[in-house]
Amino acid sequence: MSKEINTIxxxxxxxxxxxxxxxxxxxxxxAIVKGKIVKGIKRGYAGLLQEEIxxxxxxxVSDTIQRGxxxxxxxxxxxxxxxxxxxxxxxxxxxxxxxxxxxIGGDGSFRGAQKLAAHGINTIGLPGTIDLDIAxxxxxxxxxxxxxTAMEAxxxxxxxxxxHERCSIIEVMGRGAGYIALWCGIAxxxxxxxxxxxxxxxxxxxxxxxxxxxxxxxxxxxxxxxEGIGHSASMAKRIEAATGVETRATILGHMxxxxxxxxxxxxxxxxxxxxxxxLLCEGKTNRVVGYLHGEFRDFDIDEAxxxxxxxxxxxxxxxxxxxx
Length: 324
Ligand code: ADP
Ligand code: F6P
Hints:
binds 6-O-phosphono-beta-D-fructofuranose; 11 helices; binds adenosine-5'-diphosphate; 18% strand; seven-stranded mixed β-sheet; four-stranded parallel β-sheet; alpha/beta
């Protein structure tokens, strides 16, 4: 028989993402409606090990749904990757009466959640990352806001790039994942998109492409470069020298992680937050919530972590055709 959960803990871990507050708010309020006690753990697993645990009531999440960042703060914590750290974390949960835990973060955070579950704390993961790089879900909390923020910024760079007839290399976030770059590349009509998953490091191809597009009369040349490839400033110098076209690099950086979440991020994060509580109330553990084929679903964390995600070859190909 599954155990009944009385006290639910919630933490955010890894890189923050807009919409995490909407998820926390939903966890707190759905749990209260279901008669549970809620505790917030500050600074992810680092705060858990430091026992930075606070009571959360309905009013503690007032006025937060529209705010970027995470009211619980977030952190990366090496100590929690060790068996000793994980055992200590589980014992601290038990000491504070936390028998259910909701972890909002990316793949790394889910590995931590998996360990808490193995130590007897019923644990549910929510996909919180602007990178969209979680295989079991077509949606991650924060991606929609981040791509919209980046898209608006790139539109602005494009205006000045056109006026000056320049080439602009715009670097977007994504160390290992090119989803932000691909989406912005399509949404902003970029001439080239460099993704960590696809880039062949053939700069001469880009140079030739720029020269051809100048001959066709194109006034600007936008290259969206993913953080994982990086080196935008030195790439700009080399491209300018090889093409004779003035080239500037802009690194959008952490502005992509902030700001008020979009409607989609608020609604999906709220739904996922409430669903995580409902799963705990049903006695579920070691699950992660995702959105796949048009519905919110839950997956076994071990299976979710074993899945692989690939950039759509079709979207990558058409992105080239559409910028012809
Ligand atoms: P994300 O959750 O966004 O992928 P990280 O990979 O930085 O971000 O992971 C966030 C935190 O999750 C790490 O700082 C660490 O505390 C925890 N974590 C990552 N990998 C593991 C692991 N294998 N076992 C336990 N905890 C982990
Ligand atoms: O995982 C989200 C993310 O923003 C990545 O796109 C980026 O590579 C990384 O976090 C940056 O992390 P930090 O905040 O440590 O610079």
